[in-house]
């Protein structure tokens, strides 16, 4: 037997030998890596790019034999950064709901309800997920997108975010088929549940939009309008609601008939009849986002197309006051009649547009560009979209712009009817019947008043205003409107009569002059004849 001290010495010696072997091995490995890196750097620097690329390809392939993991990336943008990737958004939603509890660095955003927060994993954070016995690792990264030389700007270069999943190659089938399908469907479900609808608008600041990679900026869409609260004939309302609901459920039907899944609505009528309110009601009914497109801020047709591509599905794209947006009709006349503030606003919009054009900064969007926007090939991408135009002057629009197929449904919003008043009375006064309703019914039948004016009169002006006071206000307004209309009609009649009278006087005057002229000519003729006769040789 060896003494313990000797044994300890041998063990220590062996350990020393072992550690020196390990140190040697590490040193060897280090020098091999360094040599490899050196050779690699030389290859990269001096080899033609084709050679270095194929070297890289084969090295990766070689590594693939030894590296047993597979990676799949989900990029934030699709197709040359033209569109947001729905898969990326679904993965983000899935991870924030299922895996973010394991993450140590989280990103917080307000959810559907402003008071609640949605947490998702922050950049470069890594989380693990289990699926049917397989383990996967998700990591969130970002990559700077280098801009072309021509677009170098003051703003920092845009970033592209990426989610990458890594898993062992033995789980390939399970992950690529079942797990990713599960992630995407769960993610989409979560997104619909947590969806905070947005109201987008396009900005004319091109530098800014370039920085954000999209021409749209948004706020949370919070308009409370619904079809129930809209004042219009119940039958017409029912028809519109049914049309919208049918559209939203007709994905397969549109695919079957070979038509892009989109529908156009033209809302027309005088100012204050509820066109904008109806758009909000549509968005609330279908749970869609709203893209409010300001055509005058769009530089040209290419930019218009880019904006279209950047819209998501389940959205309404609106162009308000299409007749004022651009000189698309080519037959614009000066508006001399101003009947309300709404019209004044539009008039100033037109003037601003004209001025912008004169300054050379006006929009170069053409009618054909807009027609392509509505139903060109690009308009089909994304699907499930409504396009809504509003106008006060439907007769001014080019027929090509509003033909069926582009604007499939034409909806006229007009002055308030008694049915419409009843809806407003229920909303504003909580009344379904009242003795004063009869007077309102008679007056509403005799004069024109917009739902906006009715609504304004039913608004309480003080905390003490009760239903009777507000109904009296409305009756007063209706009587005033009736008087004004009668006065206007009288004036118009008088003007007509004056014109007629003027015409008659002018005609008589002309006739007299003609007769006089004729008379003179005849006299001249007689005189000439007499002269001729007298000059005849005897
Ligand atoms: N049909 C309606 N039902 C309920 N409220 C209405 C209706 N029409 C108008 N209103 C009320 O009047 C206000 C103005 O209506 P809205 O902005 O929708 O009119 P518009 O037709 O878009 O006018 P414009 O042509 O000037 O844009 C709304 O805030 C709403 O309260
Ligand atoms: Mg409006």
UniProtKB/TrEMBL annotation:
Q: What's a Pfam family this protein contains?
A: AAA_assoc
Keywords for the protein's UniProt record, in alphabetical order: ATP-binding, Hydrolase, Magnesium, Membrane, Nucleotide-binding, Transmembrane, Transmembrane helix
- InterPro entries attached to this UniProt entry: AAA+_ATPase, AAA_N_dom, At3g28540-like_C, ATPase_AAA_core, ATPase_AAA_CS, Mitochondrial_chaperone_BCS1, P-loop_NTPase
**Region annotated Disordered, chain positions:** 333-355, 485-538
Q: Which SMART domains match?
A: AAA
Compositionally biased region (Basic and acidic residues): 485-521, 529-538
TM region(s), chain numbering: 21-43
GO molecular function terms attached to this record: ATP binding; ATP hydrolysis activity
- Organism superkingdom: Eukaryota
Q: Which residues form the AAA+ ATPase domain?
A: 261-417
Give the family, as the similarity comment puts it. Answer: Belongs to the AAA ATPase family. BCS1 subfamily.
Descriptive protein name: AAA+ ATPase domain-containing protein
Q: Which reaction does it catalyse?
A: ATP + H2O = ADP + phosphate + H(+)
Q: Which cofactor does it need?
A: Mg(2+)
Q: Which GO terms describe its biological process?
A: response to stress
């Amino acid at each position: 037997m060896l003494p313990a001290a000797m044994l300890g010495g041998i063990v220590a010696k062996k350990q020393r030998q072992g550690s020196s072997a390990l140190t040697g091995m590490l040193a060897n490995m280090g020098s091999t890596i360094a040599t490899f890196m050196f050779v690699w750097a030389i290859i990269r620097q001096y080899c033609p790019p084709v050679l270095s690329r194929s070297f890289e390809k084969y090295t990766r392939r070689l590594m693939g034999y030894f590296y047993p993991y597979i990676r799949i990336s989900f990029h934030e943008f699709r197709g040359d950064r033209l569109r947001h990737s729905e898969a990326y958004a679904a993965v983000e939603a899935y991870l924030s709901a299922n895996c973010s509890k394991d993450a140590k660095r989280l990103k917080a955003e307000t959810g559907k309800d402003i008071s609640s927060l949605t947490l998702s994993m922050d950049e470069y954070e890594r989380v693990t997920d289990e699926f049917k016995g397989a383990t996967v690792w998700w990591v969130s990264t970002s990559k700077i997108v280098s801009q072309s030389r021509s677009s170098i700007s003051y703003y920092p270069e845009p970033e592209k975010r990426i989610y990458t999943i890594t898993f062992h190659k033995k789980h390939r089938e399970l992950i690529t088929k079942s797990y990713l399908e599960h992630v995407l469907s769960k993610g989409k479900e979560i997104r619909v549940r947590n969806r905070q609808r947005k109201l987008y608008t396009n900005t004319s600041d091109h530098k800014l939009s370039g920085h954000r990679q999209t021409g749209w900026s948004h706020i949370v869409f919070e308009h409370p309008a619904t079809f129930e609260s809209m004042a219009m004939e119940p039958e017409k309302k029912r028809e519109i609601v049914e049309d919208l609901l049918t559209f939203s459920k007709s994905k397969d039907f549109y695919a079957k008939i070979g038509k892009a899944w989109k529908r156009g609505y033209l809302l027309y009528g005088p100012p204050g009849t509820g066109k904008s309110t109806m758009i909000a009601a549509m968005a609330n009914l279908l749970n869609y986002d709203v893209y409010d497109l300001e055509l005058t801020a769009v530089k040209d047709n290419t930019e218009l197309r880019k904006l279209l591509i950047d819209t998501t599905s389940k959205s309404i794209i609106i162009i308000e006051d299409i007749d004022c947006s651009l000189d698309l009709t080519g037959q614009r006349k000066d508006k001399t009649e101003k009947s309300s503030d709404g019209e004044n606003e539009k008039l100033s919009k037109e003037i601003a547009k004209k001025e912008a054009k004169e300054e050379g900064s006006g929009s170069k969007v053409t009618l054909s560009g807009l027609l392509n926007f509505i139903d060109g090939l690009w308009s089909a991408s994304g699907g499930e979209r409504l396009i809504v135009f509003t106008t006060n002057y439907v007769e001014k629009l080019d027929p090509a712009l509003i033909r069926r197929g582009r604007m499939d449904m034409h909806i006229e919003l007009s002055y308030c009817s008694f049915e419409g008043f009843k809806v407003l009375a229920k909303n504003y006064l909580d009344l379904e019947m009242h003795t004063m309703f009869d007077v309102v019914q008679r007056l509403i039948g005799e004069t024109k008043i917009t739902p906006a004016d009715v609504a304004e009169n039913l608004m309480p002006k003080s905390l003490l205003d009760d239903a009777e006071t507000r109904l009296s206000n409305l009756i007063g307004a209706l009587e005033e409107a009736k008087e004004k209309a009668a006065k206007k009609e009288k004036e118009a009649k008088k003007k007509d009569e004056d014109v007629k009278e003027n015409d008659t006087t002018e005609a008589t005057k002309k006739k007299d002059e003609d007769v006089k002229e004729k008379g003179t000519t005849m006299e001249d003729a007689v005189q000439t004849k007499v002269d001729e006769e007298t000059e005849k040789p005897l």
